[in-house]
Amino acid sequence: MTPFEIIAQTTQAIAANPSDAEAYKQRALTLCQMQQYDEAMQDLNTLIDILHTEDAEIYQLRGTLRMNRGDKTGALDDMRHALDLNPDLLHQLNGEFKTKEKGHC
């Protein structure tokens, strides 16, 4: 399935069920891969702020986007929450906060 097909499919799923956290997550991941960072951030914010997800991967991804946008405090808050949810992430975070090209997920 192409990224555009995934976006279309997840957008349909969200229209049918605005509480479909998995559809938001898949769309956010796909948007991030497509370098559509603003749109990905909107879905991540919806997952966290509206749907109240407790998915460590979502917090980690939003933390990475925030860091690359210069929001170090927000990034740190998200990464701490991700680690609270899944302490095993510490091994994956090695080097996570090194400077990357702006916007990368």
Give the helix level as a range of percent.
Answer: 55-70%
**What is the subunit organization of this protein?**
single chain
How would you classify the helix and strand content by structural class? Answer: mainly alpha
> Which of globular, elongated, flat, extended, rod-shaped describes the shape?
globular
**Computed Rg:** 14 Å
**CATH homologous superfamily heading:** Tetratricopeptide repeat domain
The main pleated sheet reads as: none
Structural domains: how many: 1
What are the secondary-structure elements, in order, as H or E? HHHHH
Question: What features would you describe in this structure?
Answer:
With 105 residues, the chain is an all-alpha fold. The protein has a single domain (3-91), classed as Serine Threonine Protein Phosphatase 5, Tetratricopeptide repeat. The protein is built from 5 helices and no strands. It is globular and about 35 Å long. 29% of the residues are buried.
